[in-house]
């Protein structure tokens, strides 16, 4: 069977481990000035021999898939992205992704390095024991939003979450969907002896009042200049476009279509993406804003029922009403309105 015309990662590519989440690991692609060996190499940190990024991979990182119970092939992820996500935004608004074939032995070498990193205490404990899929033939080249090649820039990132209220929320709600869920989780955390999570209200992000956006900006990680970040976010076109799509795809909560439907999959995906904001320190250059983490959500593995149960719990236990007095004061815009 002939392979589709995808890019192929060269056999001599060297990978530098950057970070990992529950389902994927991100690597930087590099090459040595004078390679003395043949075959892929994996380096667990950026220290070590001087490496350069091959010209054809500048501005790109490599994402590799872990072996998980609900893992979806990268070809399906790429197909969903091209058909469903890409038409909603301009190319410059998205963390792009492109399939690339992996050379033989690369994933096995990566897994060996992950195992070694565990023994050396270099891999996060909560990620240990799960390795890359050896049956996945592809990786994904994704837009590099780090400041690695642009050291005079700042990277801020945030998860916009639900930019409008859940249609199932009570009419007298004092919490938006995101703040209600945060209250519930903070209550559970306190009962278990843990700390509360403090964050912004998504309704502040898309507010017409600059002071509300500024209030949200103080919780965004990565930027110390909160006023400047607020000016970037205030009425930002990409953020407003995300809000528009959430409004159009608001069949979520208890009364939307089947949780297994493609419509709800897209609606939930748009409510769980990440916004990356990269801007120069000197305020002279352009600002780059892209949305990532836009793999189409799936209701498989009990996720669909979880969404429904969670909404029922938020309603039934009064989290939308903000009745729990044992928590820190809420940042929710509805509470202040």
Automatic annotation (TrEMBL):
Pfam families per UniProt: Ins_P5_2-kin (PF06090)
Domain notes: The EXKPK motif is conserved in inositol-pentakisphosphate 2-kinases of both family 1 and 2.
EC number(s) recorded for this UniProt protein: 2.7.1.158
UniProt KW keywords: ATP-binding, Kinase, Nucleotide-binding, Transferase
InterPro entries: Ins_P5_2-kin (IPR009286), IP5_2-K_N_lobe (IPR043001)
Gene Ontology cellular-component terms listed: nucleus
Catalytic activity reported: 1D-myo-inositol 1,3,4,5,6-pentakisphosphate + ATP = 1D-myo-inositol hexakisphosphate + ADP + H(+)
Family to which this protein belongs: Belongs to the IPK1 type 1 family.
Organism name: Aspergillus pseudoviridinutans
Name of the protein described by the UniProt record: Inositol-pentakisphosphate 2-kinase
Job description of the protein: Phosphorylates Ins(1,3,4,5,6)P5 at position 2 to form Ins(1,2,3,4,5,6)P6 (InsP6 or phytate). Has kinase activity and phosphorylates inositol-1,3,4,5,6-pentakisphosphate (Ins(1,3,4,5,6)P5) to produce 1,2,3,4,5,6-hexakisphosphate (InsP6), also known as phytate.
A GO MF term: inositol-1,3,4,5,6-pentakisphosphate 2-kinase activity
Single Gene Ontology BP annotation: inositol phosphate biosynthetic process
The keyword tRNA-binding is assigned to this record: no
């Amino acid at each position: 069977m002939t392979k589709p015309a995808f890019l192929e990662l060269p056999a001599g590519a060297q990978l530098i481990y950057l970070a990992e989440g529950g389902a994927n690991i991100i690597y930087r692609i590099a090459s040595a000035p004078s390679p003395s060996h043949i075959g892929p190499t994996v380096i667990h940190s950026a220290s070590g021999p001087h490496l350069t990024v091959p010209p054809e991979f500048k501005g790109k990182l490599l994402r590799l898939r872990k072996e998980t119970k609900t893992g979806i092939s990268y070809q399906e992820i790429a197909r969903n992205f091209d058909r469903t996500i890409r038409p909603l935004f301009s190319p410059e608004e998205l963390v792009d992704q492109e399939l690339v074939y992996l050379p033989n032995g690369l994933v096995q070498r990566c897994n060996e390095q992950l195992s070694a990193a565990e023994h050396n205490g270099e891999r996060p404990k909560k990620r240990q024991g799960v390795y890359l899929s050896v049956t996945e033939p592809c990786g994904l080249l994704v837009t590099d939003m780090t400041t690695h090649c642009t050291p005079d820039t700042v990277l801020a990132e945030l998860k916009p979450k639900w930019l409008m209220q859940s249609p199932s929320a009570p009419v007298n709600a004092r919490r938006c969907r995101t703040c209600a869920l945060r209250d519930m989780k903070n209550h559970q955390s306190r009962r278990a002896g843990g700390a509360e999570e403090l964050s912004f209200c998504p309704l502040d992000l898309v507010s017409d009042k600059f002071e509300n956006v500024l209030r949200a900006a103080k919780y965004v990680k990565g930027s110390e200049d909160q006023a400047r970040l607020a000016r970037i976010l205030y009425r930002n076109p990409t953020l407003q476009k995300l809000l528009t799509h959430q409004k159009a795809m608001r069949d979520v909560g208890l009364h939307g279509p089947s949780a297994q439907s493609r419509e709800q999959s897209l609606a939930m995906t748009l409510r769980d993406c990440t916004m990356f904001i990269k801007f120069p320190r000197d305020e002279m250059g352009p600002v780059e804003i892209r949305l990532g983490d836009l793999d189409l959500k799936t209701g498989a593995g009990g996720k669909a029922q979880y969404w429904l149960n969670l909404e029922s719990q938020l309603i039934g236990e009064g989290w939308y009403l903000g009745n729990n007095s044992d928590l820190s004061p809420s940042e929710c815009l509805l509470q202040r309105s």
